[in-house]
Design goal:
This protein is α+β, with helices and mostly antiparallel strands and about 700 residues long. The protein has 16 helices and 33 strands. A five-stranded antiparallel sheet has the order 5-4-3-6-7, with no helix packed on it. It has a five-stranded mixed beta barrel with strand order 8-9-10-12-11. The longest helix has about 40 residues, at about 575-615.
Length: about 700
């Protein structure tokens, strides 16, 4: 039974605020169901927060009485913010005395009131779910008990550990704790794992961050035993029905330190047309649905990449072995082969199982040098130089096609962190280069992802798509208020807004500094891409059809659709399997989206840790910086090496600065600071534990 049906009848029958038992009785008669079933439905909607029952047993529709569903975002000082479920709503301040036992990350119902000045404040009325199941912290061991102080300062309560539940941990150890009890005031738990000493050791520090997101690097012995049953070589004679591409010129192009190669490419001419081949490791051939490997991959959702380690979605026996397209080794693949016109139009395509033998393991660095004419490398790889030159040519064609249809390039810099392999200290921190070789691989993967998505959407087969929704109208309105102050305005909005409108708007901004300002604010106005069983297109790419097909070693959505493709090719999609698949693609999309967000947060936190560690030795040094964000408590600056830090309002010489949330400026009537301003700053402090960096302005 749908909530909308029940809420409609509650309103229609004027039952709001009536005793719960009376409402259940009346609704069971209206819907013609047993009172027990109606009681179960009402209880479920209470648990989800859609309905609220007060202390006197009276039932209400939560939204109707000002209750807001959301997640608690804690603070070390005791107060918190409610992050509403509705992405378009602002966060709401909740004083410590109004938390009513809610912890950081809890799902709650809060009563929100707004004062005459328009400021909102909340009070937790009901905790819907205690989301915190584990945490990482430093243990203090006493004679009869222990306490763990959480690393995450948003959790303002220490965890009580009974004698014997500390797992032989010693005072000062970093520990991973499972929470076993919470009475609204006191947390209780037991130690799952001792991570190491809290003494600044890099491995322990990074492991602590990773465990804070419940990410695990090891696989169970039972699962590893299952891996041993998988063959580590391919006998091509056992696959006579596969397209045999072993005599084609095919190679991989990846980063210098890549260990798993899940995509290879080929390119040749057919008259004036390009024949592009994108060949992806056939992971679905080895990771069978509902196997232990599959269950573990589903739970992980994605591989996690950190500067000092990788947490793979699949064991390295697969990801670096039989599923990796290593050079000069026969490998099973799924190929998407496209005939492309000189103008970049897809004339025809073939999606098929194949077997390949990669000729070379190429790197982005070397391919870029070859395309730019490096004589030594051109001589070394003379067999594939013509192909690489042709790939650069096709990439130019494809980029122009995407530009013409409206693809938005936000030019987001990514950090490249290089560590000393022995000490794990940062030896290099810079923006990751995006050369022609990275761009051409991106272009070829985009082609395959779009072609596969369109093919299966038109077949009507249940599928997992990568979607990026149109930005909300109110966010674009707010953006226009900001950009108008700089003399620019988006002409379209709402349903009329198309990607090309944003692209042309950005191209109209000639000044590089202004363009950088607007680029950053516009990016924050966009929605986040996610996975879905509904093909609604990708706004940022200006693509009507899009999916993730090209990385099944490290992304579960890709593995999901690989198996769908294989079942379709082998005519295994009967009525029963289609019904099951329809449910599973919803489940896969939701789980993969959740795991992607969690992994990205972990990766960002670990990157921030290494950035802080790198900057520790530079306290007192001056830097050129750009203001990248402005708030009511100061502004954040970004250095050329991607490090960000806060210039607090206090350090500016007083609190007489006013924050304008429309123009995103901080001003005291004499001096004004805005996004994109170039400033000189001095590094004041680095807090490694909280991964925060503070700067002060160097006055001119």
């Amino acid at each position: 039974m749908e909530f909308n049906e029940i809420s409609l009848q509650i309103i229609k029958q004027k039952l709001e605020g009536k005793p719960r038992a009376l409402i259940e009785e009346r609704l069971s008669k209206i819907f013609g169901v047993h009172i027990t079933e109606m009681h179960r439905n009402i209880f479920e909607f209470e648990q989800s927060g859609d309905l609220f029952c007060d202390k006197k047993g009276r039932l209400y529709i939560s939204k109707k009485i000002g209750l807001v569903k959301g997640t608690i975002n804690g603070n070390s000082k005791g107060y918190a913010f409610l992050v509403p479920e509705d992405e378009n709503s602002e966060d709401i301040f909740i004083p410590a005395h109004n938390l009513n036992g809610a912890l950081h990350s809890d799902k709650v119902l809060a009563l929100v009131k707004t004062d005459k000045d328009g400021r909102s404040e909340g009070a937790v009325e009901k905790v819907l779910e205690h989301s915190l199941k584990t945490l990482v912290g430093t243990i203090k061991v006493f004679q009869k008990f222990s306490f763990v102080e959480p690393d995450n300062k948003k959790i303002s309560k220490d965890v009580f550990i009974k004698k014997g539940a500390e797992k032989n941990a010693k005072s000062g150890d970093k520990v991973f704790v499972r929470l076993t009890g919470y009475d609204g005031r006191n947390l209780e738990g037991s130690v799952i794992e001792i991570l190491g000493k809290d003494n600044g050791n890099v491995t322990t520090d990074v492991l602590s961050i990773i465990r804070g997101y419940e990410l695990i690097e090891n696989f169970s012995s039972k699962l590893l035993e299952e891996c041993k049953k998988i063959p580590q070589s391919v006998d091509a004679t056992q696959y006579p029905d596969r397209l045999d591409l072993r005599n084609e010129i095919i190679f991989t192009i990846d980063g210098d330190d890549t260990k798993d190669y899940d995509d290879a490419v080929s390119l040749k001419m057919d008259g004036e047309n390009y024949i592009l081949g994108v060949h992806i490791a056939d992971v679905g051939e080895y990771v069978k649905r509902d196997s232990l490997l599959d269950e573990e991959a589903f739970e992980r959702g994605t591989s996690s990449y950190f500067p000092n380690c990788v947490l793979p979605m699949l064991p390295k026996e697969l990801s670096n072995g039989i599923c990796s397209l290593n050079p000069n080794e026969d490998r099973l693949t799924l190929s998407c082969i496209c005939k492309i016109s000189p103008e970049g139009k897809i004339l025809s395509h073939l999606i098929t199982e194949s077997v390949i033998c990669s000729n070379y393991r190429m790197t982005y660095r070397n391919v870029t040098k070859i395309i730019n004419g490096d004589k030594e490398l051109c001589a070394k790889y003379k067999d594939i130089v013509p192909t690489l030159k042709l790939m650069a040519e096709l990439n130019d064609v494809l980029e122009k096609v995407r530009l013409k249809r409206g693809e938005i390039n936000f030019e987001i810099p990514e950090a490249q962190i290089e560590l000393d392999p022995k000490t794990l200290e940062v030896i290099s921190l810079q923006k990751r280069p995006r050369t022609v070789s990275e761009r051409l691989i991106e272009s070829f993967m985009l082609v395959a992802n779009e072609v596969v998505a369109e093919h299966f959407q038109k077949l009507g087969v249940p599928f997992v798509y990568r979607i990026h929704e149109t930005p909300d109208d109110d966010r674009i309105t707010a953006f226009n208020e900001f950009s108008a102050a700089l003399g620019y305005k988006l002409k379209a909005s709402g349903e009329e807004l198309k990607p090309i409108d944003i692209q042309q708007f950005m191209e109209s901004i000639r000044d590089d500094e202004t363009r950088q300002i607007i680029n950053g604010v516009l990016l924050r106005s966009m929605k986040k891409a996610k996975y879905s069983n509904n093909c609604i297109g990708h706004f940022g790419l200006a693509a009507k059809y899009y999916c993730h097909f090209t990385s099944p070693i490290r992304r579960y959505p890709d593995l999901t659709i690989h198996r769908i493709i294989k079942d379709y090719l082998h005519k295994k999609l009967d009525e029963k399997s289609l019904r099951e698949l329809k449910q599973f693609v919803v489940k896969s999309s939701e789980q993969s989206s959740v795991r992607e967000v969690l992994t990205q947060k972990a990766e960002r936190d670990v990157d921030d840790y290494f950035k802080c560690r790198y900057m520790q030795k530079m306290v007192g040094t001056e830097f050129d910086a750009t203001i990248c964000s402005v708030t009511n408590f100061g502004f954040f600056v970004e250095l050329d090496n991607t490090v960000e830090g806060l210039v607090s309002i206090a350090s500016l010489g007083g609190y007489n600065y006013q924050f304008n949330d429309k123009s995103l400026t901080l001003s005291n009537g004499i001096k004004r600071y805005r996004i994109g301003d170039k400033v000189k700053v001095k590094l004041l402090n680095v807090n490694l534990a909280e991964r925060n960096i503070d700067f002060v302005l160097v006055q001119k």
